[in-house]
């Protein structure tokens, strides 16, 4: 009888066009792997809550893989937990924990291998080596996942969301903590990162390498080891992000290295060692950003050219701008500088005297960091003032000709 | 007498600055060339100048590019991370190298260094990578 019922059961699934296979401790199908063997393309596997320790769960069919009340998929620190090897797979509502660690093949919580149209949504990932890993994938969505790891500085750990050689990705509304880089993009194009929160990651909140034509919008990057890095890239749009509390010798709110033709608009840089550090960047527009309470607002190295810094607020920074050379190939216009001491007789809202944002002392400390000891001493203040009147060491074309009298409402 | 001379000599050696590598502090030190924070203790590298200053790098390719670009920096010695160990620096000139295959380094130099040719052999199969000598590595950049 049991055999017949099982055959009927099997028949039922093979005839029905899209069926739902339920998995749970009190149900006929007790194991996820069993359900995967039974499933056909287009089926739904609904996993009820419980703890499933089944090694690597390999999804090689086009299925909807749905968890009810966050069933736990435990990798037991040995292997990858979920491997997706089919197009059009949806993984939703699982708690994926304890992937293998520090192995050569980078074990992950959830990994997509060379596939399209995969959706990974509303999962909790806890204590995995890499969180979610997309390789060679197109049109995938990673949405509303909570990704947490417990990395320490001296130990190797993977990235929260790691994307490699992919395009048309949407990374939306994820929360990432405790990984190496919160979100990592390498050779990823035409993708968008929107409304994510990356905090307390060991290295960067977001890290771009060789990834062109992307945008990241309305994200929060707070208290990561070294902020956000955008490197060896062009055509990146950075809108409405928060870069906060990235403190340390080599930490920057935003590190730009070898990047061109990008647009930085309406971001907020607050309480970082350096708000933006630029090296080898060209044709970037920095517009309507707020730099507040940073050690350095912007560090612009001499290797940068044709950048435009327009309509920003510089408030309460120790140094607004610093540079390491005398060559100036960037333009500053209509920014608000709280250190500006000029006047506006014609009442057009712009100061009548140009403002030199580069202080003498910023140049001195760039060359001799230990000179910082003398900051706010009487002699330095005197030197700074005389330099303002008669620039000799600071490049005199480092100037904002139309400094604003009032801060912009950003 | 001999002992005293030896002791004296060793003191002299220490005070003159040694030829020892300085450990890389992971996730604290940053790469001199690419400015990235060094987070992987298998691919890092270090340069010691004749003046005794250390420059640290997250990838061997960064160190070589830096050395070729900054010819005014007089190099005393190069060090590289031993791939078979965790964050251990070994002299670069005497190391054995692999490149490519499954290697995936922070700045895509994709070099792995080993203290012995035996280890190099073992990993060569595992990583499916090409073997190189220091001379070959150095002339690549």
TrEMBL record, chain A:
<protein>
    <submittedName>
        <fullName>Nitrous oxidase accessory protein</fullName>
    </submittedName>
</protein>
<feature type="domain" description="Carbohydrate-binding/sugar hydrolysis">
    <location>
        <begin position="39"/>
        <end position="186"/>
    </location>
</feature>
<keyword id="KW-0677">Repeat</keyword>
<dbReference type="InterPro" id="IPR022441">
    <property type="entry name" value="Para_beta_helix_rpt-2"/>
</dbReference>
<dbReference type="Pfam" id="PF05048">
    <property type="entry name" value="NosD"/>
</dbReference>
<comment type="pathway">
    <text>Protein modification; protein ubiquitination.</text>
</comment>
<dbReference type="InterPro" id="IPR051550">
    <property type="entry name" value="SCF-Subunits/Alg-Epimerases"/>
</dbReference>
<dbReference type="InterPro" id="IPR026464">
    <property type="entry name" value="NosD_copper_fam"/>
</dbReference>
<dbReference type="InterPro" id="IPR011050">
    <property type="entry name" value="Pectin_lyase_fold/virulence"/>
</dbReference>
<dbReference type="InterPro" id="IPR007742">
    <property type="entry name" value="NosD_dom"/>
</dbReference>
<keyword id="KW-0833">Ubl conjugation pathway</keyword>
<dbReference type="InterPro" id="IPR012334">
    <property type="entry name" value="Pectin_lyas_fold"/>
</dbReference>
<dbReference type="InterPro" id="IPR006626">
    <property type="entry name" value="PbH1"/>
</dbReference>
<dbReference type="InterPro" id="IPR006633">
    <property type="entry name" value="Carb-bd_sugar_hydrolysis-dom"/>
</dbReference>
TrEMBL record, chain B:
<dbReference type="InterPro" id="IPR008719">
    <property type="entry name" value="N2O_reductase_NosL"/>
</dbReference>
<dbReference type="Pfam" id="PF05573">
    <property type="entry name" value="NosL"/>
</dbReference>
<protein>
    <submittedName>
        <fullName>Copper chaperone NosL</fullName>
    </submittedName>
</protein>
